[in-house]
Design brief:
Elements: H1 2-16, H2 21-32, H3 44-52, H4 67-77, H5 93-107, H6 112-123, H7 128-141, H8 153-156, H9 164-176, E1 180-184, H10 198-201, H11 204-216, H12 229-250, H13 299-315, E2 317-319, E3 325-327, H14 333-342, H15 350-353, H16 356-365, H17 391-408, H18 416-419, E4 424-431, E5 434-444, E6 460-469, E7 473-480, E8 484-494, H19 505-508, E9 513-522, E10 525-532, E11 539-540, H20 546-559, E12 573-574, E13 587-597, H21 615-618, H22 642-646, E14 651-660
Parallel strand pairs: 1-6, 5-14, 11-12
Antiparallel strand pairs: 2-3, 4-7, 5-6, 7-10, 8-9, 8-13, 13-14
Helix pairs in contact: 2-6, 2-20, 3-6, 4-5, 5-6, 5-7, 12-14, 12-17, 13-16, 14-17, 16-17
Bound molecules: copper (II) ion (CU).
Length: 664
Amino acid sequence: MRASIILLAGLLAWASADTDLAHKQQAINRLLYHIYDPIKSSYTDLKEAAASWNPRDHTGHCKDGGTAITKLMDELDHGRLTPQHHWFSLFNKRQREEALMLVDALFQCKTFESFKSNAAYFREKMNEGEFVYALYVAVTHSDLTEDVILPPLYEVTPHMFTNSEVINQAYAAKMRQTEGNFKMAFTGTKKNQEQRVAYFGEDIGINSHHVHWHMDFPFWWNGAKIDRKGELFFWVHHQLTARFDAERLSNYLSEVEELQWDSPVEHGFAPHTSYKYGGEFPSRPDNNKFEDVDGVARILDLKVIEERIRDAIAHGYIVDNDGKKISIDNDHGIDILGDVIESSMYSPNIQYYGALHNTAHMVLGRQADPHGKYGMPPGVMEHFETATRDPAFFRLHKYMDNIFKEHKDTFQPYTKEELTYENAEITGLEVSELSTYFEDFEFSLSNALDSSDSVKDVPVSAHVSRLNHKPYTYTVKVNADHEETATVRVYICPRYDNNGVQYTYDEGRWTCIEMDKFWTKLSAGANEITRKSSESSVAIPDRESFAHLIKEADEAVASGSELKHDSIRGCGHPERLLLPKGKRDGMEFWFFVAVTSGEDATHDDLVGNDHGGNHGYCGIHGETYPDRKPMGYPLDRRVTNPEAFMSIKNFRSIPVKVFHKEEH
Ligand SMILES: [Cu+2]
């Protein structure tokens, strides 16, 4: 009896080796560990797979019978793949094709075992950048890797997140075999006004959120329909732009001006960042006049595409590939327009409307060497993890945001009747102290450095100053007529522009920042709803460090214990950046709360289940966006009658101040 129980336990352990999270997490960690070096020799299963697992012999493990992996193997065997130790950019068509061949091959794996072995095989043969991108996307979307946490990219490929000076210091420390923790400074000097807000564009949490957003919602995605992908593209970038503007106002700078193809870009950018392989990221001088970029686009092409899009907005319809009209004169229009402007594979007519966003990213990224005379590698704008470092990123997105606004402004304002929720009246709104401060954050640079089994690793890390805020709470008092589920939407909106002029209601609504959205059950009578900043549904907490993920998975595997993860996705605004930086004497905002009928929820369980707590900018992975209303509701449309808007009893705004404290 006893023997058979032990046997059974052994069988179960064996059976779960392929499926349990600890083993999966360990394998993914190890595949990403020191990505520029061969797989560590102590990782025997991966090492063996890299050496002797021939994917052609295992096509029986593929859902498609091996079509995808054979295609990739053919490219490899014919020496057509980009070599290792070379830069990678997703915007490079050929490199993207190669990375996507691996994504495809991994998606076709029937078991995690074959996923892992195929990944290990290509890890040592494909370009490292392509491999990392493909693995991140595959882990994000594959059912086989559900609940695996991807290590923070800033610790997997630190070159893309820190500056050359820090990397050089880390190399020197390793050569000397001494520990080191180096201060990462923001780019620019005090002579450069843009430097005042560099802490935002260069924040590694923002960079991480942005690159993960684009992995969750890839423009090349052709698989199962992702709900409201185009609208999310608009919304996440609109919010990044609005947040950047708020940071500027708090630093006595005017809002970002939209990019204009005919005007020089006044402020250049020197990234102070290098590729691991491929040299320095190119700089752009001040007052750069846009030049056509060989092999990418002429400036005229961009203007033509822009005109066609604006024309579609004015007409209220898009013309698809077959010449059929698709109306955008409705709430769904923004979703289509997002697909068109990016463009994604969902665009109804890429041929005609082009890919304004993607092409513009490349054109901006190449201005240092538009004709390829100097063989410069792609610029920061050609990588989602580095793009926000360049202030021109926000100018470009302001330009596109204004096109989206042109569309939104074609709609009639919501009427008072549409906005009124008869069941509820807000009777009070209180917000606790709002204050921001800078703190030091440390992350490991170890994976940036070459390693070998014979040279000992020494701890090397960077520390960087980053914005954070004191936790805060707010309380909404609501009187309800009867018990019902309600939606609560929360925004903060700057009150004054940089000249101290108060925004009109209609100007101000477009500057609003989504802080939170949630569903709650109102009881008949008086309700008091209190929410904490940490509960915000647009934000995620700090990412788990790579070292922690490794330790946790290794311990779980060694002890045979179960591994459980709370927060998984990398997409989500960093929680510590929820509040824009304050001012010493307080920066003034409106704190706006709207309580409306919960009928707009697309899931039944939203009152008790926050689905990971990051759906505001990132949706719910693999499911419908929780909110049926347009993103940005009720501030997404023009407000022509502010008095009527302000008198709505289920809305309330109060003035608040965000303070900034140098010492905390
Ligand atoms: Cu983006």
